[in-house]
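Sample A.
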Amino acid sequence: MIYSMTGYAVKSLDIECGTLQLELKSVNSRYLDFHFRTADDLRSLEIPLRELLSSRLTRGKIECRLAFNSAAAGADKLTLNPELFATLKSLNDSVRTQMPEARALSVSDVLRWPGMFGDQSIDFSAVGPQVLLLARQVLEEFSASRGREGEKLAEMIVDRVNSIREIVRQVAPRIPEAQAAFTDKLRQRLQDALGNASDDRVLQEVAVFATRIDVAEELTRLNAHLDEVERVVKQGGACGKRLDFLMQELNREANTLGSKSAITEVSQAAMDLKLLIEQMREQIQNLE
C-alpha cells in the first residue's frame, strides 16, 4: 500500500481524572515535520509522542493536538477545607472591622478560592501510558485514512500509465512509415537543390537527418520508465520521491519525442503525453 501525506484522525479517551483528546492531521511536505499543540501539563509527553509517530510516518507536515479536560467532581463529593474556610472568615471579619466599606467575600469567592476543596491536583506523570495508548489508536486510524487516499492516487497513476501506453501503441506503428516517406521527400528535395551533387552526398545528408528524427530510443526508454512506475506503485511504501523522479524522466522523453518529431501525429502524441505526465506529477506530490 502507498500512503498519501494528507490524513486526519481524532479520538478521545476517558480516564479517572478527566478526558484526553488527541487529534492528528497532515498536509504535504518534503520532509517529516512535526508541530505539537499540547496542554502545558502534558508537554513532557511530546518526545515519546514524536518517537511513536516517527516509527510509522516518513513524510508530511504533521500537526498533533493533545488536550485534557479534567473531570468535575459531583457536588455530593465536594468537602470544604475547614481550616482554610475558618482562616478566610477570620480575615474577612478583620478587614470588615478595619474597613467597613469593603465588600465582604461572596459565596462564589469562597468556593473559587484555591485549595478550598482540598488538593485537586492531577498527577500527570501517571497519565503518560494512557496518552500513548490513545496515540496508538489515533495513529492506526490516521494511517488508515492516509492509506485510503493513497489507494485512490495509485489507481489514478496506473490509469494514466495505461493511457500513455495506449497513445504510444497507436502512434508507434505509424512512425517508421511516416519517417520513410518524409525521408524520401527530403532526398528528392536535396537532389533538386544540389543538382549535380553525387548520390553519396545526398545519402549522407539524408542519413544524418534520419538519425535526428529517429524516436525508437525515446519510445523504448518511455516504456521502461512506465514499467518502473507500475513496479514502484505495486511495491508500495514510501515511494513519493522515487515516483517524482520518474515523472521527470518521463517528461524528458516526451520533450525529446516532440522535438524530434517529423510528423504531426508524433507532435500531438508528445503533447498528450506531457499532459498525462503532469497530471500524475501533481498527484504524486501528495504521496509519502
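Sample B, a different protein:
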Amino acid sequence: MSLEADVRDLWHRHEDGDVDAASASADDADTLEAFLDALEDGDIRAAEKRDGEWEAVEWVKRGVLLNFALRETEPREYGGVTYHDVLPLRRTDDLAARGTRNTPDGTVLRRGSHVGADCIVMSPSFVNVGARVGDGTLVDSCDTVGSCAQVGENVKLGANTLLGGVLEPVEDAPVVVESGVSLGAGCRVTSGFVVGRDSVVAENTLLTPRVPVYDLVSEEILYGELPPERRAFTRFVESSVGEHDLFDGGAYKPAVVAMDLEAETLDATQREEVLRS
C-alpha cells in the first residue's frame, strides 16, 4: 500500500473506534513515523495550488491529526527542561548540508515540519507540525509558523510574525504565504488567508478573512486573499455602528489597503541578499 492508502486506512479504523493511542499496533506506529518523515522531507504537503487556487490535501491533514490521536503524551527533554507532548522535536542534523542554519536557545522545529535549503531560522521561533518553509526563507525572532502553514521560497517573515495553524476542518486550506513575500514585523496571518507572491506587507498588519482588503489595483474589496505583487498596509474605515450614541466622533474598523508595488522596490530575494551580505 502507498503512504496515502495507509493513512486513509488508519483514519477510517480510528473513526470506527477500532484503534486508539492505547491499541495502536507497531505497523500503525510505523505508518505515523513514515508520514512525519515524508512531511519533513517535503515529499508531501498539507495544501497544493490547483488550477490557480490553494486547496487542502485532506489525507495529509488527517495524518497530522492521527499523530495526535494515536500517540501518548510523554515526558521529553529540550534544553535541559522536561516538557510533555505527543511529538518530539524535529532532528536538525540534516540542515547544515542544505545550507540552512538555526540559532541556539529557542529555534523549535516540531517533528513533521519541513524547512528547505538555505533558510535562516532565528531564535526564539517555532515551526509546527505540517508546516512547510520554502528554500531561502528567513524565519525571524519570535515568529510562529502554525500547523500546516505553507510558506514559499525566498520569503521574509519579520520579527514577531504569526502564521496561524489550520488543522480542522480538514477540507479547509491552511495559511499560505507565497514565494517572494515580505511580511513586516508583527504581522498576523490567520484562518487560511493567502498572501500572493512578491507582495510587501507593512508592520503590524492583520491579514484574516474577516478583515476586508481594499485592492486599489483591481478596484475590488477582497476577503481572504492579498493578490500578488501588492504593497499592503492597515488603515481604518468607518464602521456600520459609526453613528451609535456610545461612540463620540464615530466608530472605525480595521481594513487592509493594497496598492501596486513601486518599480524601485527591492524584491524579497534582493532584500535577503542585502541582509546576508
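Observation for Sample B: The two ends are 48 Å apart (CA to CA).
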